[in-house]
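Our consortium's second objective concerns turning raw sequence data into structural hypotheses that experimental partners can test. To show how far this objective has progressed, the report includes one record in full. It was chosen at random from the queue rather than selected for favorable results. The single chain below, 281 residues long, was entered without modification.
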Amino acid sequence: MIEVRNLTHIYSEGLPHESVALDDVSFTIADGNFVGIIGHTGSGKSTLLQHLNGLLKPSSGTIVIDGTDITDSHTKMLDIRKKVGLVFQYPEYQLFEETVAKDVAFGPGNLGLPQEEIDARVRRSIELVGLDYEAVKDVSPFELSGGQKRRVAIAGVLAMEPEVLVLDEPTAGLNPKAHYDILDMVQEIHEREKNITIFVSHNMNDIARMSDQVLVIDKGRLAMDGTPQEVFAREEELKAMGLALPDAAEIVSQLRKKGMELPAGCLSVEEAADAIAAALK
């Protein structure tokens, strides 16, 4: 479980141009949850993610993950890295080794594990992201496609065997097919590993389809915390923040405003189609 309490982060604190990036943010994530985070650009989403991995220390507040207060100055960074794996936006830009296997092995190698354990983790992680280990292990990561590079970068994080996997816009810049392939892979990893998965996305369709819990960040504060149905039911508040509804929910909303009797809470195309077909009958 993750417990965030009264988390505040101020950049350049005490200086004339100080900026409050997070303001008294509190929430709880249950073990095994898939959590989507949404918010307008500059709302504080990426700052929040970097706190979950210990890359940033808060101005005040605490983060407790599986009983460990990662904001405590006595907590070792290595212990945090074992618990929380963070995949940055465009993670393929961080590939650097001469082969895929060596790149994926970098993280577990720093844990001081026996070589046999490192090799086992590398194979398992590469296969977990849907790549053929024997086919890619000796290939330069720079010879792979964009989608494959991103899979290798994610494999490098999975090789640390984190209890929490955090992804900052994992499909950014990918073509539509690669976009859905990566999301399907992330969903499969979540179901197999039974870990907490947290992802940031500007795509409301993805958030609605994949999330158990949605956090909405607005101007550094937690504006909403609930299921996709609960969050996307607050249409006017979301739009006031510059956020959209999932496509299906927007269509249903517009038809309801035109007088068609449709149920609220249709978040997928299938749900919307069934509701519209029933109303037309």
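The partners drew two points from this record. Residues 176-193 form the longest helix (18 residues). The chain has one domain: 2-245. Both points have been shared with the crystallography group to help prioritize constructs.
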